[in-house]
Structure formats: structure tokens, C-alpha cells
Amino acid sequence: MKTALHFGAGNIGRGFIGALLSDSGYHVVFADVVEKLINALNEYKSYNITILDVAPDEPIKHISNVSGIFSNNPEQLNAAILDAEIITTAVGPNVLRIISRSLAAGISERKKQGKEYLNIIACENMTGASGHLRDEILKHLPEEDQEYMDTYVGFPNCAVDRIVPPFNPGPNGNVLSVGVEAFFEWIVEEPAFKGPRPEIKGMKLTDNLVAYVQRKLFTLNCGHATTAYLGYLKGYKTVDEALKDKSIESTVHAAMKESGAALCKKHGFDEEEHGKYIEKIMNRFRNPYIKDDVARVGREPLRKLGPADRLVGPAKMADEFGLPKDNLLKAIAACLLYDNKDDPQSVTLKKDIESKGLEEVLEDVVGFKKGSKESRQVLQAYNELKA
Ligand SMILES: NC(=O)C1=CN([C@@H]2O[C@H](COP(=O)(O)OP(=O)(O)OC[C@H]3O[C@@H](n4cnc5c(N)ncnc54)[C@H](O)[C@@H]3O)[C@@H](O)[C@H]2O)C=CC1
Ligand SMILES: O=P(O)(O)OC[C@H]1O[C@](O)(CO)[C@@H](O)[C@@H]1O
């Protein structure tokens, strides 16, 4: 049987990528650091996915042929890398650097054992995540193994879209149970594969990935983050609750339309089709079966304020074409006001704003120069929202 190694037995790991791999005939080895997840994977060797939607075709999906290993156990991990025909990750962008050392060791071992093609796909909310992982691996890979990696190891980037919120399995539930929306989209960069393309049900291939990554990040994630930050400010707990507030809904919709106009100009998406894409996403956010915490969706505000990320990325793209971006700038201001003591990045952001001032943080983190039109506009929106 074919083996897939997947790093991260969390929501996306179990609820999306691991499930597609298992459905496509792979034995899926999940590598994680959480003992109870690994133990449960090895004890039950299967788990259930509940589809969170109105009358889904298949309300519960049973996933089998799975096992677990500790990602911080070098022997287990090396053996799994050696066996794998494909490796995927869903660990969060910041963890890619952490797993890169073990992957480098595993790649050297594959070379020693005469193994051929392998593809490693990082399924994270990040532009160019697999390429970034490759760069991190290169830092640990002996020079004499680099040519082998160039020849035999592919790092296709991808866009991964499915809302998988934290899930309460109920009193008799299993720690592995996971709830997901019915919709999913996994688009992978075809030309970057090395060797034969793996056949995975539900994986779509494209030769224009940047367009799809930006379409997803600047629409779904942009709208989601805008809802989360505006919702948090008004004391709402979940995304669907926040969107029932008409003023939040209209800003979110307007921000997605602003990013949409820029995306259509940049990548040539059809405007009418893109309009439908936005409406579909708004309906996904309103799904009453998904109780998605605004604090989860807004987690790590410093990452989300990055120049290529979901808020600043589309604002810059709109600017490139001289298009309106008022609502995107308002979303950036709401993100800067995110004040959650349980989120370390929110704590850092708040401290930085207090010690350096908002304008300096805007210049350092977001890249809007002090005194620029954008900086002044965010400042104004920040003060209005604060009031
Ligand atoms: N949940 C969602 O709806 C979506 C999430 N994503 C992206 O997928 C990625 C994962 O997100 P979630 O599954 O929601 O997070 P999660 O927190 O549920 O899962 C991450 C898993 O990675 C594990 N992990 C942490 N350090 C590790 C290490 N060193 N080695 C192996 N595993 C390690 C954690 O223990 C956890 O089980 C993120 O990049 C996120 O942006 C993308 C689309 C949808
Ligand atoms: O996982 P991140 O990048 O922190 O952001 C949360 C976002 O990711 C998702 O989990 C799925 O794309 C959304 O629910 C949300 O927009």
C-alpha cells in the first residue's frame, strides 16, 4: 500500500488533507507532537468526520488506514520519510522551520537508500509555503545532497480551502473526531511536481497557482479576518454571530469587493464569476452549523498584517491599479486594535503600539510609510473604531 506522511494531525490534517489521502488509497501516517492524538491514531486507526451543513449527502465520513508517530522522534520520523510516497503538512506557517531539520535528515537518508521521487506539499495559509519549507530544509541539508534534492524532491505550492473549526465531539466522542464544512478546494502547482503526479481524489492541479492562492487568501481569508477583528471589537464570539451585525456585514462585503476588483485586474478573473465566488464565501461564513470563534480566525495578528497576507496584500494590489481600498484599510485598523491577552502576537502588537506609536508599527509591520496617505487613513480608521 502507498504511504503518505502528513505533519500535523490537527483540524486541516484530519479534516481535509489526511482524509483525501486516505480516500485515495494511501495509508496516512500523521506526525504530531500531541501525545493524545498519536495514541488515539494508533489505537483506533480510524476516525469520523462530521459534515457541518444543512442536509449533507454523507453526514458522517469514516476515515480509516491511519496511524501516528511523534514528530520529535528522529528514528520514527526518518523511517516514515523513507517510506513515504508523498509528504504533506498542515502545522501552521511558523512550524515549517521547526520540521525542516528532520526533513533534511530524511532526504539525506533517502539519497543513501537510493530512493527516487518524492513531493512535499505544505498546506498552510501562506503564499509559497512549500517553497519556504524547501528554503528552510536547504539550510540543514549537506551540500553534497543538494543536487539529489533538486532532482528528486518536488515542492509544489498549493492553495488549501476548507473551514475546519474546533469541534466538540460530545460526551462519547473521540479526540480524533472532526467537523468540517462540505466545501473544499485544494489546488496544487502542477509544474513543480517531480516524477509521476500522485493521484489524489479532490486535488486539482494548475499551472497558475499564484492567482488561486491570492484569490483564496485575499477573498476568503480577508473577509474572515475582517469579520473576526470587527466582531471581536464589538464583543461577538463567533463569525456567524458577528455577520448578523449589519454594519460588520457591509464592511466585510465591501472589503471583499475591493480585493475582488484588484484580483480581477491582476489575474483576469471574470468579474461576474468572481462576484459569485464572493457570495458563496459570504454564505459559507453564515453557515449556522459552524461555530467558528473570532479569536481562532483572528489568531496571530502580526502574521495577518504581513505585507503579502490577507489584509495588506489586497490593499497593496488595489493600490497598484488605483482602485478603492477604504474598507481594506479599515480592516487593517481593526486588526491593529485586536486586544486578546491569550494571543501572544496580540500582546506583542499592543505593547509595540504603546511603546513605538501606531505610525511606527504601521511602517515596520505593514510597510505603510509614516505620513503616507495609507498610514493616515489607517490612523483615522483606528481612532474611529477605538472611539
Ligand atoms: N482550520 C482551517 O479551517 C484551515 C487552516 N488552514 C491552515 O492549515 C494549517 C493548520 O491549521 P489547523 O489544522 O487549523 O491547525 P491545528 O492547530 O488544528 O493543527 C496543527 C497541528 O500541528 C501540530 N504541530 C505543531 N507543531 C508540530 C510539529 N513540530 N510537528 C508536527 N506537528 C506539529 C499541532 O499539534 C496540531 O495538531 C495552518 O497553516 C492554517 O492556516 C488552511 C485552511 C483552513
Ligand atoms: O489559519 P489562519 O491563517 O490563522 O487563519 C484562519 C483562517 O484559516 C481558515 O482556518 C481557513 O482558511 C479560515 O477559517 C480563516 O480565515
Automatic annotation (TrEMBL):
GO terms for cellular component: cytosol. The keyword NAD applies. One of its GO terms (molecular function) is mannitol-1-phosphate 5-dehydrogenase activity. Its EC number is 1.1.1.17. It comes from the Eukaryota. Keywords: NAD, Oxidoreductase. It catalyses: D-mannitol 1-phosphate + NAD(+) = beta-D-fructose 6-phosphate + NADH + H(+). Residues 3-202 form the Mannitol dehydrogenase N-terminal domain. InterPro entries: 6-PGluconate_DH-like_C_sf (IPR008927), 6PGD_dom2 (IPR013328), Mannitol_1_phos_5_DH (IPR023028), Mannitol_DH (IPR000669), Mannitol_DH_C (IPR013118), Mannitol_DH_CS (IPR023027), Mannitol_DH_N (IPR013131), NAD(P)-bd_dom_sf (IPR036291). Residues 208-361 form the Mannitol dehydrogenase C-terminal domain. The keyword Oxidoreductase applies. One of its GO terms (biological process) is mannitol catabolic process. It is an enzyme of class 1 (oxidoreductase). Monomer. NCBIfam families: PRK02318.1-2, PRK02318.1-3, PRK02318.2-2, PRK02318.2-5. This is Mannitol-1-phosphate 5-dehydrogenase.
